[in-house]
Amino acid sequence: MTSPQHTDLSQISERTNVQLPSWKSDAQPFVQIENITKKFDDFIAVDNISLDIYKNELFCLLGGSGSGKSTLLRMLAGFETPTSGRILIDGVDMAGIQPWSRPVNMMFQSYALFPHLTVAENVAFGLKREGIRGAEVKQRVTEMLDLVQLGHLGKRKPNQLSGGQRQRVALARSLIKRPKLLLLDEPLGALDKKLREETQFELINIQDELGVTFVVVTHDQEEAMTLASRIGVMNHGVIVQTDEPQDVYEYPNSRFVAEFVGSVNLFEGQVTVDEPDTVCVTSPEAGGELCVNHGISCAPNQDVHVAVRPEKIRVSETRPDQTYNCLQGTILDIAYMGSLSVFKVKLASGKEVRVTQPNTNRESGGRFTWDDSVYLSWDMDSCVVLTS
Amino acid sequence: MSASKIAWINDSYAKMTRYNFFRRVNWGRFSVVSVPYLWLAIFFFIPFVVVFKISLSEAAIAVPPYTPILDWNLEEAYVTLKISLSNYLFLLEDDFYLSAYLSSIKVAAISTFFTLLVAFPIAYLMARTEGSTRALLLALVILPFWTSFLLRVYAWMGLLKKNGLINETLMSLGLIDQPLIMMQTDFAVYIGIVYTYLPFMVLPLYSALEKMDMTLLEAAEDLGARPYQSFFLITLPLAMPGVIAGCLLVFIPAVGEFVIPALLGGSDTLMIGRVLWDEFFLNRDWPMASGVAVVMLIILVLPIMLIRNSQGKEGAA
């Protein structure tokens, strides 16, 4: 395995292009979640979810706290029993199968390393429960510790390790039994930003190398974007959208997804033009007509929202040469963030629009200043219409 | 540099460090810490020295009833120091004392074991419940302390005696024809000790179990451990400090227990606490009684020090 510093980005992006992603082919799903509901007393944590996860996928369940993502994960591991519905893993119904008998391992958010055992003993724990003894245990533990680059720390106790090292031990421990399905609960949540970025690529490499199906739970949309082959966005116990990261970002299917994944500007308006390849919306909030180059199914004059990402908006001093997607406002606030600058622009309607501009040269940060009157514009294929 | 100069520098350096030492002592902290030590010195160490001194003298019909160790006569100008080891020799020679020690240790060990068995589920439940339920369980464990210890032992006599509550109930249910003989047996002593010392076992176990992260058990199950394996591989090792503390808290006082075997035990229940009582109040042999007490202390302190020592090494490793 390559060390995180030398991770070749092209290799990672290449991976998904090698073959048709399994969820697009007609392969048999590896994990089938069928109408799963989980109630805690009156509270519905998971509400009638159906989801298929395919072999070798790195599936991310993305959602805020209380969205039911962890409950769904715990039902896959067998720690919670579904109130109704069923889960099949590799075609086998998991009902009544106890956690210790499932072909599934889990990496816990707190890592849950056994404090009284050494690193090597922690990793060996799962093997020994399978009745494996002696030289084979030693060999497999060494292999696994080498894979996570902790070969030299086998004799340490967990409290003698750094956060990043503990995370690796937890990963090694959950992979040692060669599970068909690995569940990861906020795997990078406890790491600092730099370490998290390194570890993300490492996780992807390990997943690729071992060919294990990963299901990751996270509340961090950036983490989900980098890790996942597909993302399921959860809200109030329901999966709102399941798509590849790029589609979730570029084509959110609802205001919730648009706002939860990345930041977005939403303009309320009524549909005026409704054609198969063009939709136009009159928005008093935006103070103009907004057009999108994709069709939607809606009633005439229906209230909709047009969503546009801050980085897709152009800022100019003079009026651009287009009649639609063109707004005027004054700069309310500027935040210089190094690689880019964030502008808050106030429109005549009082609405504030968030715009980010890359600082392509050293001077571009100072191009605009407070209270400048500016025009905002974007292309038809840069925004989406949301009906819900 | 001449040797004398080096010596002078060393000397002044030593003076300087001594000076700093006194400057650095935090007198406020020192006075707070010294109170308990002073307490232990006055009420534990000095009495122990007195007892040890008495154990080296011989019984006499006098007030106090033993011979002085140090005797002097100023007019005839002599001082005699008379140390008698006869009490300790007698302890070794007479099988009676050895068997009393062994029997005390046996009774204490068996009771400690059963106290552990009873206390573990209670402590586990307390550690796993939350909020008001936990507070209630804790109160229930401590509640017996609000009644006199003697009263509680007498209550057991009422339960265990021949026409006591247990026998009456079993006979009226037709389960037995003859009343069970429970009073004046070792069984009654075990019941009394387990019952009395239960809170001392429950509380340290609870504090150890309460610190345990429940996800550790889920992690163990996830890795293929059945619940009983999780218990022996995870819960028990992590509760070990509590187990050791609880066992010491029960075992040590149980060895010297006097009231419970005297009230619940029979004439054949031989325990060192009773021997001590008899030596002191029936035989009025204070030196012998002191000797018995000193040996008991040594028997108890040595294994505890060994345990503490091995724990300390483990903690450092």
Description:
The complex is a heterodimer of chains A (388) and B (317). Helices cover 23% and strands 33% of the residues of chain A. Chain A is an alpha+beta fold. In chain A, helix 3 (119-129) crosses helix 4 and helix 4 (135-147) packs across helix 5 (163-175). The longest helix of chain A has 18 residues, at 193-210. With 317 residues, chain B is an all-alpha fold. Chain B folds into 2 domains: 3-81, no CATH class; 94-284, MetI-like fold (Orthogonal Bundle), CATH 1.10.3720.10. Chain B contains 13 helices and 2 strands, in the order ααββααααααααααα. In chain B, strands 1-2 form a two-stranded antiparallel ribbon. In chain B, strand 1 and strand 2 (78-81) form a beta hairpin. The interface between A and B is medium-sized, with 23 and 17 residues.
Instruction: Please state the second-level CATH architecture of the largest domain in chain A.
Output: 3-Layer(aba) Sandwich
Q: Provide the CATH superfamily of the largest domain in chain B.
A: MetI-like
Return Rg of chain A in Å. Answer: 24 Å
The secondary-structure element order of chain A is: HEEEHEEEHHHEHEHEEHHEEEEEEEEEE
Rg calculated over all Cα atoms of chain B: 27 Å
Question: For the largest interface in this structure, which chains are involved and how many residues does each contribute?
Answer: A-B, 23 and 17 residues
* Overall spatial form of chain B: flat
The beta-strand count of chain A equals: 20
**Portion in helices of chain A:** 10-25%
Q: Output the number of helix runs of chain B.
A: 13
CATH T-level topology of the largest domain in chain B: MetI-like fold
Q: What is the share of helical residues of chain B?
A: over 70%
Enzyme class (chain A): translocase
Protein name (chain A): Spermidine/putrescine import ATP-binding protein PotA
Family (chain A): Belongs to the ABC transporter superfamily. Spermidine/putrescine importer (TC 3.A.1.11.1) family.
Keywords (chain A): ATP-binding, Cell inner membrane, Cell membrane, Membrane, Nucleotide-binding, Translocase, Transport
